[in-house]
């Protein structure tokens, strides 16, 4: 397996200069990619805008996002994604997610949590048709249009789309429709069990997902989390113990990565749960602890 480690900004809202500096530091320290989340009610730039900025500044860094799929205009989204991949020379990585179901974000997404899975089922195959560059006619829940062709198309051919999620319906959807799986808030044993469901669903659909296309997004902490942050994470994790979900300290993070690698996972996005005061120092310490795991 080719182990690759990217860095996510998490909740940090970075201005243009900081984002450009972070892109340079990631390349300098041999990290694989920069990942920006999409949280409509949170800090930080829209991920497509932020990644376009970072990708134009640094022409070597891969650009990744966990972005919302429900609630999107499919033609506009297809064009935006294809344009970023084309302009960056095929450096764009995308994992679509249903979005948070708590707090103000729940309503801001624009689609009720219970309806988001169906929206992904409808939109992802439609996006693939639009990325082909051929005229597409569609009349359904996501809109209505006739003979619409998107240009440019993605440089990457095929253009891989990954999905997140841990619910069984999400795992089965990933096997049916996606090219890879990037969950969060799970330990190695749970991820391994989830991968089995993904692979079985893919086989039932007459397809297969590359063994190289299984990864994990890991939030980590330098010091123990304060009670407020820990309670929020526990609520999202539905009461599962935090020890396997949010490693505290560099040795614990490395140990967790090694256990995921042993379980067959090879692509990682590491996110500081608390934004660092000094990103360069944070990345240097992180690289010293884990970058040799890249193969």
What does this structure look like?
By secondary structure, the chain is α/β, with parallel strands linked by helices. The protein has one domain (about 5-295): Luciferase-like domain (TIM Barrel), CATH 3.20.20. The protein is about 40% helix and about 15% strand. The chain has 10 helices and 10 strands. It has helices at about 15-30, 45-55, 75-85, 105-110, 115-130, 170-175, 190-205, 225-235, 250-260, 280-290; strands at about 5-10, 35, 60-70, 90-95, 135-140, 145-150, 160-165, 180, 215-220, 265-270. The strands form 2 sheets. An 8-stranded parallel sheet has the order 8-7-4-3-2-1-10-9. It has a two-stranded antiparallel ribbon with strand order 5-6. Strand 2 (about 35), helix 2 (about 45-55) and strand 3 (about 60-70) form a beta-alpha-beta unit. Helix 1 packs across helix 2 (about 45-55), helix 3 (about 75-85) packs across helix 5 (about 115-130) and helix 6 packs across helix 7. The longest helix is centred in the middle third of the chain and has 19 residues, at about 115-130. The chain is globular and about 55 Å long. The N and C termini lie close together (about 10 Å).
């Amino acid at each position: 397996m080719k182990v690759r480690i990217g860095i996510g900004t998490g909740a940090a809202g970075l201005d243009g200069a900081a984002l450009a500096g972070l892109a340079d530091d990631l390349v300098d320290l041999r990290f694989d990619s920069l990942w920006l989340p999409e949280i409509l009610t949170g800090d930080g730039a829209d991920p497509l805008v932020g990644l376009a900025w970072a990708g134009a500044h640094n022409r070597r860094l891969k650009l990744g996002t966990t972005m919302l799929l429900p609630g999107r205009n499919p033609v506009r989204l297809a064009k935006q994604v294809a344009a970023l991949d084309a302009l960056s020379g095929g450096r764009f990585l995308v994992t679509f997610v249903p979005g948070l179901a708590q707090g103000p974000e729940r309503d801001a997404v624009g689609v009720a949590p219970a309806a988001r899975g169906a929206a992904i089922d409808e939109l992802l195959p439609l996006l693939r048709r639009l990325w082909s560059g051929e005229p597409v006619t569609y009349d359904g829940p996501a809109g209505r249009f006739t003979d619409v062709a998107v240009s440019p198309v993605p440089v990457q051919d095929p253009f891989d789309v990954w999905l997140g999620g841990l619910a069984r319906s999400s795992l089965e959807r990933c096997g049916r429709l996606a090219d890879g799986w990037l969950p969060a808030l799970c330990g190695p044993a749970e991820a391994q069990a989830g991968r089995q469901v993904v692979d079985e669903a893919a086989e039932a659909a007459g397809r297969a997902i590359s063994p190289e296309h299984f990864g994990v997004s890991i939030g980590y902490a330098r010091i123990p989390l304060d009670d407020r942050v820990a309670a929020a994470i526990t609520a999202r994790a539905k009461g599962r113990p935090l020890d396997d979900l949010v490693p505290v300290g560099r040795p614990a993070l490395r140990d967790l990565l090694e256990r995921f690698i042993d379980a067959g996972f090879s692509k990682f996005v590491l996110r500081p749960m608390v934004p660092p005061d000094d990103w360069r120092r944070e990345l240097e310490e992180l690289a010293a602890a884990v970058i040799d795991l890249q193969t």
